[in-house]
Amino acid sequence: FPDSFEESELGLVPKGWRVAHVGDVVDTVGGGTPDTKDVGYWEPAEYCWTTPKDLSGISSPVLLNTERKLSAKGVAKISSGLLPAGTLLMSSRAPIGYLAITQTPMAINQGYIAIPPSGTLPPLYMLHWCQHNMDTIKNHANGSTFMEISKKAFRPLPVLVPPAEVLAEFVVLADALFARLVENEKQAQTLATLRDTLLPRLISGQLRLPEAEALIEEATA
Q: Which residues, 6 or more positions from 126, have their beta carbon under 8 angstroms from its beta carbon?
């Protein structure tokens, strides 16, 4: 890490770091919604398809699954297709600012700006950048019915880019911490599913407590 600072359009920044436009260092894509009246786009329901509603109830920026799924025909209808696991999602309207990194390949609707893991800056770096700069992002939104930040308005925003060696160290540290967060989220969902499944059976007497404890130990082993 550098031992001094230098002036930039963003003020004082670490020496050797540079300012770039978001669109120059990451890919940004949007999505769509296939015709909901055409069953062929939705059945068989094989591929995750997300709307910002999926992010509204999560407690951490981790998206494991989606409420709705598409068929292969439905995925083909969306220009951005199936985005890889590790893609950063930011809701771009109603409201702006839900954030999560996907843990499985999925397609997105038109309510997102997505950043796949293919740019100079990794999605985990951009997750923290978005969190830190959300006021600036929202200030570049517009709209008459509801506020929306378009990809056209998002791409020119200035972002601070560290040298490759600093970025590599960030990835090593941050990826390990985020992986623990993902595992915790998976376990929390497993326990929530067990609770919803076992509690009614315990209350009704269909299941005894020792049996429930054994099932929980098996699921969390």
A: 26, 88, 115, 159
